[in-house]
UniProtKB/TrEMBL annotation, chain A:
It is found in: Cell membrane. The keyword Calcium does not apply. The chain crosses the membrane at residues 25-47, 86-109, 116-136, 172-195, 278-297. Signal peptide: none annotated. This is ABC transporter permease. The keyword Transport applies. Gene3D superfamilies: MetI-like. It comes from Streptomyces noboritoensis.
Length: 306, 264
């Protein structure tokens, strides 16, 4: 790295000119891309902040009036959707971890020559548009379909509807369907980072733990799981962040009782055209997610994640 | 019982795999369905009608070609800009590195709906005409960070002495870059580009906010979920799946053969 930035001795003018040009190289490389991010990512945040404190109407136009009341009103009206979003996204993240860990472990340590085949199968769902795949869940969970029938005859639905996850003998248009869709959609984002960090573990550590009379369960608890923490952290982030803002699963698999905050932002922006409320909601969501993510990364102790 | 206990991880892993694959199977099977109503949600009878006439639905293939165009241009833009940033980050020292890193990291740590909504407020305030260009701008924006991450990982693991060796053998800076640096960084750049293409082609949330009345393929699918889902959607989904799997498997075989011949 240093060889390229070391300025050569500035003996005469041409050399110094060349060295100035050389020192500018990193900036030429950085500027176009960063400018793109500043103008189309950072600047929009400023515009959104200003929109959120405007008042007015679509016909008369909106003016900045520093009307912070919008934030309070928006939160008061839509806090059920906020709570629901965090609850659904949290549940989906937990389920992704529980379902994804065995598969990542299988690929990393037990698959042998099947490893690449299973990896392709994990990535393969991406090759079909996620909206089409989410619609397929409508077929899978359809009323009176084989899945609902099986769950019904095993009395699973009795338990879940007692818990409030489903209603009667329906799965579609219930919280369970939405969480199931969210879990499904973000599962590969959990599996891949888990696999990468599990794959780096030296298998001899397992043997060593066994030689020291650790049971398989102890080996997992004391050796494997701690070493896979980076994967757990980035996997949960990659799952929770998109899930918290998602509105596709709630719209396609849920009913009006399962609307998440993403649905509210979408309809306020694109149908109701109440821009200040929509911008305020979007800002609150961003703040909640950023705070949760920062606290989580601090707690998990992997700050060199980026 | 002991067998079950010893293989519990394998069984759980395979169950998860089945959960992941099941919707793709359903999409494939239902591409051969002949539904009674407008919605293709329940099995009626076998038919290959949709496969014989994949573009038989109004506007669908148009939206598909629009999505492919946008994905191609967005991939190109994001890959060029992202590769430049990645090289600068790894190879040079400069001020405000922390701020630059967080500017690149934040788009990946932000719920898509927030980015989509804020970008829309920018376009509304500027009075921009929503359509092809606003979609392309948005797609380059959110693909950029992913390309930077992919390329950076590769460039970081590169041995700088290879370039020094090229210089020592009297290669000019351009020649060194084209014949040494670029070929070594290529896998990272290709990975970034593929990721960008997949992200752009499949994006719905950001596109939905910034497309105006322009309809990309994901937006067509979204709209059809309200109006009625034609079987052709499943045909396109299945075809995409098959093509991609064939490409991946072929690429793997070529890579294997190459590494085998390198060993020999």
């Amino acid at each position: 790295m240093s060889a390229l930035t070391e300025a050569p001795p500035a003996a005469d003018l041409p050399v110094r000119k060349a060295s100035v040009r050389k020192r500018l190289v990193p900036y030429w490389l950085l500027v176009p891309g960063l400018l793109w991010l500043v103008v189309f990512f950072a600047l929009p945040m400023v515009y959104q902040a200003s929109t959120s404190v405007q008042t007015g109407s679509l016909e008369k136009g909106f003016q900045v009036t520093w009307h912070f009341q919008t934030y309070w009103d928006a939160f008061k009206e839509y806090y059920p959707q906020f709570v629901r979003s965090l609850l659904y996204a949290g549940t989906a993240t937990l389920l992704c971890l529980l379902l994804g860990y065995p598969l990542a472990y299988l690929i990393a340590f037990k698959a042998g020559r099947w490893r690449n085949v299973i990896l392709v199968l994990v990535i393969a769902p991406f090759f079909t548009s996620f909206l089409i795949r989410t619609l397929a869940w409508k077929t899978i969970l359809a009323d009176g379909g084989p899945v609902v029938h099986a769950l019904n005859s095993l009395h699973v639905l009795d338990v879940t509807s007692w818990l409030g996850f489903t209603e009667g003998d329906r799965v579609l248009a219930t919280p369970m369907a939405v969480v199931c869709g969210l879990t499904y959609n973000f599962l590969p984002f959990m599996i891949l980072p888990l696999y990468t960090s599990l794959e780096r573990i030296d298998p001899r550590l397992h043997e060593a733990a066994g030689d020291l009379y650790a049971t398989p369960a102890t080996t997992f608890r004391k050796v494997t799981f701690p070493l896979s923490m980076p994967g757990v952290v980035s996997g949960t982030l990659l799952t929770f962040i998109p899930a918290s803002g998602d509105y596709v699963n709630a719209e396609l698999l849920g009913s009006t009782d399962q609307k998440m905050v993403g649905n509210v932002i979408q309809s306020q922006f694109l149908r109701v055209l109440d821009y200040p409320t929509a911008a305020a909601l979007s800002f609150i969501l961003m703040a909640i997610v950023l705070v949760m993510v920062t606290v989580y990364i601090r707690r998990a102790g992997t700050e060199d994640l980026v | 019982m002991r067998w079950l206990r010893r293989n519990v991880i394998v069984i759980a892993g395979l169950a998860t795999l089945a959960y992941l694959i099941l919707p793709n199977v359903v999409v494939m099977v239902f591409s051969f369905n002949k539904p009674n109503g407008r919605f293709n949600y329940s099995w009626q009878r076998f038919s290959t009608d949709a496969w014989k006439d994949p573009c038989g639905v109004a506007d669908m293939c148009g939206s598909l070609s629009l999505s492919l165009q946008i994905a191609t241009w967005a991939t190109l833009g994001a890959t060029v800009l992202g590769t430049m940033i990645a090289f600068a980050l790894v190879r040079y020292r400069f001020r405000a590195r922390g701020a630059i890193n967080s500017l690149i990291f934040l788009p990946m740590a932000m719920p898509e709906v927030v980015m989509a909504a804020s970008l829309l407020t920018l376009f509304l305030n500027l009075g921009a005409q929503l359509g092809f260009w606003t979609i392309l701008i948005a797609h380059i924006m959110f693909c950029l960070s992913f390309v930077v991450t992919a390329v950076k990982a590769r460039v970081m693991s590169m041995d700088p002495r290879l370039e020094e060796a090229a210089r020592d053998l009297y290669a000019g800076p351009v020649q060194t870059f084209v014949r040494v640096t670029l070929p070594i960084a290529a896998p990272g750049i290709v990975a970034g580009a593929l990721l960008a293409f997949a992200l752009s082609f499949d994006d719905f949330i950001i596109t939905n906010f910034n497309a105006g009345s322009t309809v990309t393929f994901p937006m067509f699918v979204w709209g059809s979920a309200q109006r009625g889902t034609p079987v052709q959607i499943n045909v396109i989904g299945t075809a995409m799946f098959v093509i991609a799997v064939v490409v991946v498997v072929a690429g793997q075989l070529v890579a294997n053969r190459r590494s085998n011949s390198a060993k020999a």
